[in-house]
Amino acid sequence: MSREGFEEVVGLHDRNSGLRAFIAIHDTSVGPAFGGIRRWGYLSERAALMDVLRLSRAMTRKCVLAGVPGGGGKAVILDEPGLDLEKAYRYIGRCVEGMGGRFYTGPDVGTDDDALDRLSAETRFVTRTGDDGPGELGEATAAGAFAGIRAGLEHLDGEVDWSARRIVVQGLGGVGQRLARRLVEVGASVVATDIDVEYGRATAKAVGAEFVEPSTEVDLPCDVFAPCALGGILHDVTIERLQARLIAGAANNVLAKIHHADKLAERGVLLLPDFVTNAGALIRGALWHLEGRQVSIEEIETRIAASTTEVLSLSAAEGRPPARVARDLADARIAARRKR
Ligand code: NAD
């Protein structure tokens, strides 16, 4: 914990619901920690613990580069048969409430509107969508990813001619389908996939994208590959297959290992750091709590275009991949604000 700068890591076990969970607070040096609850079928407590640490630290990096005066936190629930979801989310809600506002939580993989209802019944420190909340979160993330893609293409080509661009979107969930629709609207040719083929085919049709079978999307020649499904998808095998010039999207932790950023750079592929381009929901949720306002889509696009451009300029100046530059820049800013 001290080496990586964590402030608090809590293990939870509730006999009543069968809940096993971890909450990690990485940084509250300038404001509360923000991060959703991930419910996933982890193979072990160790795997869940490693994930909550990795995710909460990434949230701090996301905050500093997005200019959000808060830090990173996260909660993970070990999903397993017999887990009583209603009681489990209520229990975790009481724990979050007990933290007194040091940690604000919200949606993530596995935490849907029902779960958010249960959390809200127990704590004030949760981000909900809806008219009386910060606004749609998936829409904010998709807008940020769109702004990142536009800034990346401008960096590569000097301008963006959408009608000449082919973009592959991997994953057509809440974020991916909104991003695909937006790209179609500006005139790009969009190819999309989803591991749920029936759902993916219908969604692609609805947004005006061409559907391809999952896993074939990696081999398609394109300008942009936009990961909007799960993390860990850029590794030795996929990097050899990818034929994109730019990779930018919404999925968290797309690099299997940081050295894969170097491998992509060697192959001439520009990868934008995910924690820069997918900060839209964080900006909306955090500023709703901190400043009591609904952040507009335009503001999200402006902020993320600015942080992407900053990282790309530094990367060009230093001759290092953007993923490494962004990580070092974020860590230097975190260290500086902790000294203040
Ligand atoms: P989601 O669960 O709504 O959608 C994910 C979609 O990806 C699903 O339709 C799923 O079937 C599909 N999928 C899973 N594995 C796949 C694969 N191997 N190939 C193709 N499709 C696959 O999630 P979401 O809210 O759209 O988020 C997408 C990603 O963006 C996640 O990694 C999430 O952590 C990240 N993210 C989301 C937000 C947000 O505001 N929702 C914010 C930041 C980051």
- What is the number of strand segments? 12
| H and E string | EEEEHEHEHHEHEHEEHEHEHHHH
End-to-end separation: 21 Å
Work out the helicity level: 40-55%
Biggest sheet, in brief? Answer: 6 strands, mixed
* Computed structural class: alpha/beta
Total count of helical runs of at least 4 residues: 12
Principal-axes geometry comes out as globular
Uncertain regions spanning at least 5 consecutive residues: none
List each distinct ligand once.
Answer: nicotinamide-adenine-dinucleotide
Q: Return the average pLDDT rounded to an integer.
A: 96
Q: In angstroms, what is the radius of gyration?
A: 19 Å
Beta-strand content estimate: 5-15%
Please sum up the structure shown.
By secondary structure, the chain is α/β, with parallel strands linked by helices.
Protein model, in words:
This protein is of the alpha/beta class. 46% of the residues lie in helices and 15% in strands. It contains twelve helices and twelve strands. It has helices spanning 45-66, 85-98, 113-120, 137-157, 174-185, 197-207, 236-241, 259-266, 274-277, 280-291, 297-318, 322-339; strands at residues 8-14, 19-25, 33-34, 37-40, 71-78, 103-104, 166-170, 189-193, 210-211, 224-227, 246-247, 270-271. The strands form two sheets. Strands 1, 2, 3, 4, 5 and 6 form a six-stranded mixed beta sheet that branches. The mean pLDDT is 96. The structure holds nicotinamide-adenine-dinucleotide. Nicotinamide-adenine-dinucleotide is lined by residues 109, 137-138, 141, 170-176, 193-196, 214, 228-231, 250-252, 278, 281.
